[in-house]
Amino acid sequence: MTATPAKPASAVAPPAPAHDLAHAFKDALFSALLALGLFGVIMGLKTEQEPTGLILEQHWERVLWAVGIVFVGRLVLNLTIWRRPGGKLDDLMPKGLQKYGGSTGTAIGVILIAVALTLPFLPGAERYHVDLGTLVLTYVMLGWGLNIVVGLAGLLDLGYVAFYAVGAYSYALLASYFDLGFWACLPLAFILACFWGIILGFPVLRLRGDYLAIVTLAFGEIIRVVLLNWSEFTGGPNGIGQIPRPSFFGLEFSRGDDGFAAYFGLEFSSMHRIIFLYYVILVLAFVTHLVSVRLRKLPIGRAWEAMREDEIACRSLGLSIVRTKLTAFAIGAGFGGLAGAFFATRQGFISPESFTFIESALILAIVVLGGMGSQLGVAIAAVVMIGGFEYFREFEQYRMLVFGMMMVLIMVWRPRGLVSSRAPSVYLKERKKVGADMVSQGHG
Amino acid sequence: MAHATDTILRIDHLTMRFGGLVAVDDLSFEARRGEITALIGPNGAGKTTVFNCITGFYKPTEGRMALAHGSSDAFAHTDELTASPRQSWSGEGQALYLLERMADHDVNAKAKVARTFQNIRLFGGMTVLENLMVAQHHYLMRASGFTFLGLVGAPRYRHAERAAIERAKGWLERINLIHRADEPAASLAYGDQRRLEIARAMCSDPVLLCLDEPAAGLNPRESAELNELLLGIKREEQTSLLLIEHDMSVVMEISDHVVVLDYGKKISDGAPDFVKNDPKVIAAYLGVDDEEVDAVEAEVTQ
Amino acid sequence: MDYFLQQLINGLTLGSIYGLIAIGYTMVYGIIGMINFAHGDVFMVSAFAALIAFLVLLAVGITAVPLALVLVLIFAMLISSLYGWTVERVAYRPLRGSFRLAPLISAIGMSIVLQNYIQIVQGARVKAIQPVFTGGITLHEGELFDVRISTIQILIIVTTIVLMTVFSLIVAKTSLGRAQRSCEQDQKMAALLGIDVDRTISLTFVMGAALAAVAGTMYLMYYGVIDFFIGFIAGVKAFTAAVLGGIGSLPGAMLGGLLIGLIEAFWAGYFSSEYKDVAVFAILAIVLIFLPTGLLGKPEVEKV
């Protein structure tokens, strides 16, 4: 809570060191006082529920720590990074990635793909890593799906998790009521999610900006509350269990003679299914990627981007905003649905708890942190966010706190995300990147 | 100018009210096929409002705006179409559209009316070429089998896309921007942006092109280039032009027909020479102060 | 009829709390055009501050209810203002004038930070207090039950009315209000005319946070239970209220708050309490379809 950049007087002109020091000290003292006000009572006095009622426990040592950290941290920052005129956190960013499109971007992309393809067979890869890879890829896929809506079409969607839930529940319910398999349900989940994307799209067609954000958020909550309360159909808070696992061209990952291991003459191992699931999501993510890259080069994708740039100009060129918005919502939602169906089959159990607002926020954060519209950026952001998030699992209590702080810091550091330039969809001579300052952010 | 008296657009009793304000008041005029019709008038006369009504961005309070494809014979069906609930009539290579009944995107997609904007509206983050590709949306959309064929990379779509790029290239050469094709539109200079917006509108294949102050903010050289471009469009394309303009040198030099608005009403209508000597027009532009009338007369006769 | 009256009273009380929080959203949105997603969590922090103050007063033996309430309110407003101010400084000011989604993500991050911070330092368990006010007025004695308005309900509604009046006066009459309105119109121009834009925006956050603290204290007194998660739900509802009323409009925020409170109370009373949130959001969606800028929002004239 210490970062308040670009204010100290030292940024105005390089003053004498003594003055600099005095100023840095004064500033740090002020921050410490502020911290005392913020943390003093809230941290120092902890309310505890006792049988006799609430009592207060004193924890003044925590306040001391917090205030001390703020003071020292601020002092150090004042004397280092913010000391130089115009010193900004942005200077710490590697230049290659800032440009992207240079060799750094391509290299990172190639490395990521190579690692993704071989992950289960890399030396030292254990079940934990494959599971983590599967999780990261799920979010990569969700990020790419949402990227169509937010990054390309410029429509702010805070309820994307609803389509994830629609996909998951579609598969779970189809499987338990009609006994359909995963592969048959996958297209159905896609179509159903598309359908719900359109259902949501219709009422919000006329809404712009933050109105759109709040209605999509509301829609996400409605879906969750309905799933939670419609117990006869969805199992309510207990969710749906025993969701069938996917088969490998009809082969189950079971111990029996007709199982995957027996068919290929392998020794049965529970890892087979884990690895198989990993490759399923890898393929799904690749499909999402290929389709979005293709769509961008088709008239429909150009219409999305044009709508983000200027809706009125679009209308003057004969593009129906209704159709353009609905297709973006529908296709974005469809990929969310695919990811949802995969989530259901992977977990084998789903409940409304998996589809809270925080998931939507997380996916949106991945898209924005990655750089809207950039496939590579979204992938990197998903790896960093989900991977980092899992890495801190041991610090259970603190990891959400750190996660939130990271969101703030990364935004302050790079408001347009990691990869902010835009690659044109068509070119005559050379594919020049379009700088972030030119690209519009959409009004929807 | 094969059909000098062939009407393409007929505006009847157009009225647009915003609350108590009457922006356009019972306006009637015609624009002829193959000609450049200019709509002029002092600031706030309601010119842009007329454009917004024609292009479907505003629903007029009252009035009829009929556009004919093919020839003006189509206007024979005006009453019949007005009585019916339909938006358009078509037959024998002709068609008639009632613009006031159409949504803004249909005015472009079906009635083939394109427009530019007073405060240029390009897709700034997209390249110059991409801007021209967006304008060919419907052609490419059909060729891509409404996305499905395009998604699987069908050759038909690839041919169509190449044709669209060729067409865009043709326009870029024409407006001298071919060397900037891969740059973002927002990085262009102001005058280039104006020309690109016109080219983009032309790529949507219009029969009527509405230009909202195309010469605003241009220097004399650019302004002269613009005149060439517009005259070229009139000569070589099957497109009629309707333009709002403040720059009298542009209006007088290129228009065939001028309609003058003041306070939402038509005060004069005729050939440029007629209009510029019309005392009502001079009074409207400059009040009734004699000295200023002299000044403007001197300017327009230059 | 009795049942209806009772739900009306409950709805108005709830709506007052939402309205007080909604003002914070609407003012911030009006002035810098962003959703201060962390506002609901500032409300939650203020409820905790009120709880702690209340326990401290109890411990030192100040039990006179009016005095205690005033002290608790002042303390909660102070703490909450500090949080509002700091959140703006840390998470929003560096992003002002930047990419539109950046402040939103930063705000969501801030919201996560505040929630987890309180969860860590105050524990995840629900905190319950004994009711402070027990009395009330029986308005009508029915056959099945009496229609009652409790002291705390009167207090909440009256406080809300008083604060709303004071607030409208501040915005309409004082130089701060003028500065706020000018920043809403055009920040650059306001700065050129000598208005300290930074300070005005900071004060807007402080004022919003202070009102949220009143709401937080009232919430604590009314429900008697709080936890670290109340900010999210109350925040989303209050934001919904602000949007429903027309974001940027102060009377709109209040109206929206009251409507949301009433919808919730009546839906819970007559249909099912499980689906009350669905009802709230569904009505929001329906209103926005027909009035895309909310009930009292200025209609957006499309400039072509």
Keywords for this structure?
heterotrimer, B: 302 residues, alpha/beta, Rossmann fold, 6-stranded mixed beta sheet, 24% strand, C: 304 residues, mainly alpha, ABC transporter involved in vitamin B12 uptake, BtuC, two-stranded antiparallel ribbon, globular
Helix content of chain B: 40-55%
**Alpha carbon gyration radius of chain C:** 19 Å
Low-confidence stretches of chain C: none
Oligomer: heterotrimer
Q: In CATH, what is the class of the domain at 7-120 and 207-226 and 239-301 in chain B? A: Alpha Beta
How many H/I helices of chain C?
11
The N- to C-terminal Cα distance of chain B equals 27 Å
Structural class of chain C: mainly alpha
Mean pLDDT over the full residue set of chain C: 87
Strand content of chain C: under 5%
User: Largest interface, and how many residues on either side?
Assistant: A-C, 70 and 76 residues
Number of domains of chain C: 1
Number of helices of chain B: 13
Uncertain regions spanning at least 5 consecutive residues of chain B: none
Instruction: Give the strand tally of chain B.
Output: 11
Output the strand order for the largest sheet of chain C.
Answer: 1-4
Task: Note the beta-strand portion of chain B.
Answer: 15-25%
Q: Looking at the structure, what is the overall shape of chain B?
A: globular
Structure notes:
The complex is a heterotrimer of chains A (444), B (302) and C (304). Chain A is mainly alpha-helical and 444 residues long. Chain A contains 17 helices and two strands. In chain A, a hairpin with a 2-residue loop joins β1 (45-50) and β2 (53-58). In chain A, α5 packs antiparallel against α14 (321-347), α6 (161-178) crosses α7 and α6 (161-178) packs parallel to α8. The model of chain A is unreliable at 1-16 (pLDDT under 50). Chain B is globular, with a radius of gyration of 20 Å. A six-stranded mixed beta sheet of chain B has the order 7-8-9-3-10-11, with helices on both faces. By secondary structure, chain B is an alpha/beta fold. Chain B has a domain at 7-120 and 207-226 and 239-301: Rossmann fold (3-Layer(aba) Sandwich). Chain B has helices spanning 47-54, 78-83, 104-109, 128-134, 137-143, 148-151, 155-174, 190-203, 220-236, 248-254, 272-276, 279-286, 290-301, and strands spanning 7-18, 21-32, 36-40, 62-69, 88-91, 94-98, 113-115, 208-212, 240-244, 257-262, 265-270. Chain B contains 13 helices and eleven strands. Chain C is mainly alpha-helical and 304 residues long. Chain C has a single domain (2-290), classed as ABC transporter involved in vitamin B12 uptake, BtuC (Orthogonal Bundle), CATH 1.10.3470. Helices cover 73% and strands 5% of the residues of chain C. Chain C has helices spanning 2-32, 39-60, 65-92, 101-122, 151-173, 175-185, 187-192, 197-223, 230-245, 250-270, 276-290, and strands spanning 127-128, 136-141, 146-150, 225-226. In chain C, β2 and β3 form a beta hairpin. Chain C starts with a helix and ends in a 14-residue tail after the last helix. The relative contact order of chain C is 0.20. The model of chain C has no long low-confidence stretch (mean pLDDT 87). The chains are: A mainly alpha (444), B alpha/beta (302), C mainly alpha (304). Chains in contact: A-B, A-C, B-C. At the A-C interface, α1, β1, β2, α8 and α15 of A face α2, α3, α4, β1 and α9 of C.
